[in-house]
Write a structure and sequence with these properties.
The structure holds two protein chains of two kinds. By secondary structure, chain A is an all-alpha fold. Helix content of chain A is 79%, strand content 0%. Chain B has one domain (21-122). Chain B contains five helices and no strands. Helix content of chain B is 81%, strand content 0%. The chains are: A mainly alpha, B mainly alpha. At the A-B interface, helix 2, helix 3 and helix 4 of A face helix 2, helix 3, helix 4 and helix 5 of B.
Chain lengths: 127, 123
């Protein structure tokens, strides 16, 4: 009933009208990494399904995922996962009304960027 | 027919009357994933590229299996809700509806396939 009267609600601001700065770029990257993680997640599901099905099928998927291209995709997914995780922590901090002033937000932004790269390297070294 | 003003009808309901619940669900799943994801990365990562028999034996164990199942279930629901918010931000009308339906089907589908596979390996 309310549908007809709702009209055209405004959409999110256009991405190109602002000068890029850290908080904005890392925030946009949070969404991009979150959506991109679908690729890695679907590969993981395919890998589990292959493991549950047969050794031959598993061999194929596992080889695909550990090939050069597979390594590239999995490493990118790993970074995206750590970035999204750290950026998520930043949002949880912000949700508690902490770290919202400019210097703190700047520190949090760089922590997410540097932290995600360091965690990716660390994970690759351990795994 | 309700004799009520638009303002009164909307007050306290949040975006599309479910905004606060949506946000709370994102908060809840993000905290859960904060615990699950690191464990999953190291259990899944250490098995990637290992022989089939070893992988099957490993994911038949309780912790790798349960963490894997929870990560996929909670992760895909977190994905569904997050992408829905993105779709609501950038599209409208019928496009918005089709995209939300597609993402919802994909998320539940992928989570179900993952859970089926893990259950089959574990049992």
């Amino acid at each position: 009933m309310g549908e007809a009267r709702r009209g055209s609600r405004p959409l999110s601001p256009h991405l190109t009208v602002y000068r890029p700065q850290l908080a904005m770029v890392t925030s946009i990257l949070t969404r991009i990494t979150g959506i991109s993680l679908l690729a890695g997640a679907l590969l993981a599901v395919a890998w589990f399904l292959a493991a549950a099905s047969s050794p031959a099928y598993f061999e194929t998927i596992d080889r695909l995922m550990t090939s050069f291209l597979g390594d590239l995709v999995m490493t990118a997914s790993l970074w995206a996962l750590w970035f999204h995780t750290l950026a998520g922590v930043r949002h949880l901090i912000w949700d508690n009304l902490r770290g919202l002033d400019l210097p703190a937000a700047q520190i949090l932004g760089w922590s997410v960027v540097v932290g995600s790269v360091m965690l990716t390297i660390l994970t690759l070294l351990i795994v | 027919m309700a004799f009520i003003t638009d303002r009164k009808r909307a007050t306290g309901l949040g975006a599309a009357s479910g905004g606060t619940e949506h946000h709370w669900n994102m908060t809840l799943s993000s905290v859960a994933l904060l615990v699950l994801v690191p464990i999953f990365v190291f259990t899944f990562g250490s098995m990637l590229g290992q022989p089939h028999a070893e992988v099957v034996a490993y994911f038949a164990r309780p912790i790798p299996a349960v963490v894997g199942a929870l990560t996929l279930a909670v992760g895909f629901m977190h994905f569904k809700n997050g992408v829905q918010a993105t779709i609501e931000d950038y599209t409208r009308g019928t496009t918005r509806k089709y995209l939300i339906i597609a993402v919802t089907c994909l998320s539940y589908g992928a989570a179900a396939v993952g859970l089926f596979a893990l259950a089959k390996i574990a049992l």
